Amino acid sequence: MNGTIYSPGYPDEYPNFQDCFWLVRVPPGNGIYINFTVLQTEPIYDFITVWDGPDQNSPQIGQFSGNTALESVYSTSNQILIKFHSDFTTSGFFVLSYHGWYYLSVSTAFVPFKLS
Ligand SMILES: [Ca+2]
């Protein structure tokens, strides 16, 4: 239920012209919490987008760029799609970790219980 996603080529800087996707799935009934432990991309032009569901038609729950550390986001779906885009010049790197959270379907609260 835990994992880490590294920018392409990490710990070297990521290449230009990237469009990378990661689909994170946890068992139904769980949401997903992600947070960046390292976020150092070219501001605005290189960014990470997160959708609360399996594809880009799902609600977008976050877009991250630049060098703001300790950003985090929760999903209510048990799947999230993560996309990383980089443009033609200037790179950087990022590391994000995710874990599944037991989601109480009768309320909007996440139980602060780490499943693994
Ligand atoms: Ca760039």
From TrEMBL:
The keyword NAD does not apply. Keywords: Disulfide bond, Glycoprotein, Repeat. InterPro entries: CUB_dom, Sperma_CUB_dom_sf. The keyword Disulfide bond applies. Residues 1-105 form the CUB domain. Signal peptide: none annotated. This is CUB domain-containing protein. It comes from Myodes glareolus (Bank vole).
